Amino acid sequence: MAASPSLIRVEHVRRAYDDGAVTALRDVNLAIGPGDCAAIVGKSGSGKSTLIHIMSGCEAPSSGTVFWRDQPVRGPKHWRLLRATKIGIVFQDFHLLPALTALENVELALMGHGVLAGERARRAGRLLEKVGLFDRVDHLPAALSGGERQRVAIARSIANDPELILADEPTGNLDSANAETVMDLLLTIRRERGAALVLVTHDQGLAARCDWRIPIKDGVVGCEAARE
Fold first, then answer.
1. I need a surface site. Which of 35, 125, 175, 185 has the fewest CB within 10 A?
2. Are strands 22-32 and 196-201 parallel, antiparallel or unpaired?
3. pTM over 0.90
4. Residue 181, CB half-sphere, CA atoms under 13 Å: how many?
5. Which residues, given as ranges, of the chain have pLDDT below 70?
């Protein structure tokens, strides 16, 4: 497990649905340290996406506690602040707004932080250049390929220079060539920015590119959830 102090930590986390009829996570304990690079691996339905949703505050645990830098995260307001300033999220389905251009989708992450419109556009442009899309800034998502849309989503996720990037099956909707490109990009950004990266995947080849793997089965984190 990551050395103390942790960046994010879950303790005795359980997540149940349908009034307890379905249990997605069972007494999960996991710590991620600053700069860690980890892959949560498991089959479909194993609980890996539920775990990443709880680590991002998109879902609340049925019981247990999530800590940020060893302080408990207390409620939706605290989670909103963390997602706005400390945690970047990359989704499998991109979650881009279809009526906004690539540039505008990235700019959204900078709104509400006192950044003037001109500076937002400049920052968003630099981020899109970083992910190889400077010539696509004015394109709507429908005019972009799946790989390009995922790169826009990655640019948006790092707009506020997060300490933690959570990527939920970021290559799940991509062909193998684009999947490798996106993985290369995530690892490069993680290395250059010093952010921790937690990747959810069922692809063992992609998981092997991370420093350590966190196996999960039937909602239980395996005993290999430690650095190799």
1. 175
2. unpaired
3. no
4. 15
5. 1-4, 223-228
